[in-house]
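Recap quiz, item 2
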Amino acid sequence: MTSPRGTGTSLKNFPLFGPIAAVVFGFLYIPLIFVVGYSFNSNRVVTVWKGFSLEWYADVLGNDDIQRAVINSLRVASISTVLSVIFATGLAIGLLRMARAGSTIAWSLIMAPLVIPEIVFAIGTLALFVQIRFPLGVDAITLAHTAFCIPFALLPIRARLRSVDLSVYEAAADLGANEWVIFRRITLPLLAPGIVAGALLAFIISLDDFIVSYFLAGAGGTTLPVYIFGMIRNAITPGVNALSTLLLLVSILIVTVSYIIARRKR
Amino acid sequence: MARQRTQARAGQGSWLAGLPGLAYLVALVLAPLVIILIFSFLSRAKLGVGVRWEFTVQPYVELFYTESLSGERAFDPTYLQIFFNSVLYSLITAVVCLVLSIPIALWIATRPPKWRTLLVFLVTIPFWTSLLIRTYAFVIILNDNGPINGALGGLGIISEPISMLYTPFATIVGLVYSFLPFMILPIYASAERFDFRLAEAAYDLGAAKLTVLRRIVLPAVRPGVIAGFILVFIPALGSYLAPELLGGGKTSMIANVIAAQFGASRNWPFGAALSVMVLVIVMLALVIFAVIAKRTSRRGSGQSLESLL
Amino acid sequence: MTANKPLALQVRGVSKSFATPEGGEVRALDNVSLDVAEGSFTVLLGPSGCGKTTLLRCIAGLESPDGGEILLQDQRIDTVPVWKRRVNTVFQSYALFPHMTVAQNIAFGLQMDKLPKSEITRKVEQSLDLVKLSGLGGRRPQQLSGGQQQRVALARALAKEPEVLLLDEPLSALDLKLRRGMQLELKRLQQETHITFILVTHDQDEAMSMGDQVAVFNEGRIVQVGAPRDVYLRPSTSFVADFIGEANLVPLTEGSGPAVIAGWGPVPTAAWAGDSPEPAPGRMTIAVRPEDVTISADPSGRFEVIDATFIGGDLHTVVQVGDTTLASRQPAATAHALATGGRCEIAFRDGSLRVVEA
């Protein structure tokens, strides 16, 4: 809350809010800590602690199916990221120049994947691919992921674009640069931090997605979350915890990197 | 001849740059929705996958009625019940999130600025992890052999494990956990913009802390509350994982039923009809929220809802 | 005008309208024409929204006129895209590229000209010297003060040695002291480089002190062009008289016969400015500067002093004459016993009254 320095900060402390905040923070993290903790449980029965062990990690990392799932996930995530960032950059620039009517329609389209329940989007794309006889699998998942990664990539890019003084572009043109030179030497470098942030977000979103991947996986398109889901559904082996922990760590790592980059470029 | 002020300004690109993205979204977001709509008026395929291209309103009929083998139609509230439950669970989820979020959002907003970004970041991290893992975490926790039952048993409070898993309770816990950050962040955004000097003025005029909270601070963060409500209610409505993994067969929500139509039950048109109904409910919810949001801005809380989203 | 000097720029009948959000139209420029002599310092002066910045942007190529022509060295440039014109702009917000160093900012325009690297380095050094920022080439714009950033913007535009340099309210973001210093700097730069400068400002002191030629704008039209002194001493309309310096605008009574100032009396012949236009229907307003109005205390005077205040070394008096008020500014020493509410008489210095267009 904004207020000048020196005002009694005790006025800012409402009763019990501190402790409740601590509880909520705990609530947010403790479940994840349990997953991580149990991944080191040597007991086969997942929820009863027996002793420390890394065997599940060994198990999981050596498993062929899991390796294939990881590769699928990485492949989907990488390509979706690249494509969605390219589309998002174009959209960010285009939105700035669109008249009111156009931009409202555009925004509705862009935000749609976020508003529509994921299940609807998942079966919708399934129906689409079946209808046009596009094979299910990694490529289908990639196409679908690209679509709903676009809003995530767009927001940081657009924020960055709007923070640029518009006369900078005019100055470049005034100094002799045509549209392409301006894009290459002014727009892109200025957008770069936003593009990086958007790319990282898109990557995580794709990596973590379950429901869309589940329906579009087909025979050979199992991604990591889909595999984990199978493990949970069929029999809870402790390997699930190890795998989940790994996925957790990757996500957290990427978000932290994105956060640090954002703070540096400020 | 006057031209718009938004005419080509040097170097700022043109609206055409957005066309590839828009075309892609039309193909992969709009087209699927249209196909769903169309499918909802088609007939069930003989072998389950896909549809038969015969027009019928049967899928919508099946929402309300079942046909017995002898062709008799009877009103069947099963699906209506599931819709109702879904809306109910989502509302409960949103309310619980609200109660939990307001203290923490306000607490963060009243910390020194340097801490705030870090604290907000800590709130956001869980959001960026896989929803699957977050839901699964509660499968472990609420388990009969899980830590809660273990602790309660170990302390001698209970002799037999409490069956928490595969109940509506578990589903709601899972939903709350999934969407809590979505409620915290908008309320925080609202709180951060609040000019604390207004509260100081209230204190100066003799108000006690709780009064200031109730009559000055909370009304000011109403836009954040509304935004948070939308951001929790709507995704919760369409949730698949929490009811699936935590709810067992007893707490199916709409998403589970829809998924089944495209899986085991093999009734695509019906699944499509269900999806259309979900979309209708979502649109309705959005309209209601938009109206509430307009009323709030008019009452002058000083913030616009769009700026928070 | 400056018919004997070569013309760097000619604006001929330029018009430009914009659509308003409500659906109407606003004429930012209405058939504007202007000649700018080579190597001169021209100032476009006027209140906000009068069209001066729009004209500047049309010359730069950042807006295209709806009608008319702009010629640079006798060649039409209004059809040439902005990046090809030998005209450069110093923007009001400076518009420095934040992701480049000062030196890279200045080099940018030279790279667009495809000059060899060694040449570019040399010119960048030269430009930095010119604006007295040598040694700061490696800094980023964010690390510089406002005044320094402004000089980088200047250096960047001057490095390309344009035919005409356009400056859009370059000093408006600076504080008063800095502004005065920069006014002198700009004048010096212009004289040193011999580049034609066109500067836009709403500050008439700035216009008066820097320009060789001042073009006064109002509501999309140029109402008067001339050397600062001429525009001050011989305003052609009441707007110009009032906008530049202070002026009393006093109506003459309608009717044939000698001119009469309503409430004061017939105008003495000596009071007229030598080159003042004749009064005529539709041109019945006279302008007189406060410093040319003498108020003297007179117990049997016809007029009442409404206000008398000492400011600086002067006495500022306001007197009611008929339906209007007259403001006067006299050295305090000569203003005897004038006080609010007192009676007084009014006299005008010889040659100080001038008829202006309404």
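Chain C touches chain A at residues 60-62, 81-84, 87-89, 91-93, 95-99, 108-109, 112-113, 156-157, 160 (CB under 8 Å).
Chain C is about 25% helix and 35% strand.
End of item.
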